[in-house]
Amino acid sequence: MKVYGKCLKCSNEIAYATSANTRVEFAMQDGKIIKLTCKNCGKINEFHVDKLHAKQSNFAKIGAGVSK
Fold it and tell me: What does each of the 68 residues of the chain score in pLDDT, given as a tens digit?
């Protein structure tokens, strides 16, 4: 699963990949606070796992279309 957060300085979207399938697994594996560095401005941002959001991948959409 990929989760995303917004940089607090420049509002650039920051991605983080995890092998967890649920938010609970994510918190247990990676901890409740995640530090992510913005590739745009270099600021280190701290996010609580509840402040990060997941997006559906395009790969899942393609797989669903092929299986029909």
Answer: 889 999 999 999 999 998 888 888 888 988 899 999 999 999 999 999 989 998 766 665 565 566 55
The answer to whether the beta carbons of residues 52 and 31 sit under 8 Å apart is no
Q: Please tell me the pTM assigned to this model.
A: 0.69
For residue 19, give both structure tokens.
């092998």
Q: Quickly tell me which residue has 């402040």 as its tokens.
A: 51
What are the sequence ranges of the domains in the chain?
2-67
Q: How far apart are CA 19 and CA 25, in angstroms?
A: 9
Interior angle at CA 24, CA 40 and CA 56, nearest 5: 55
Residue 27 has phi, psi (to 5 degrees) of -65, -40
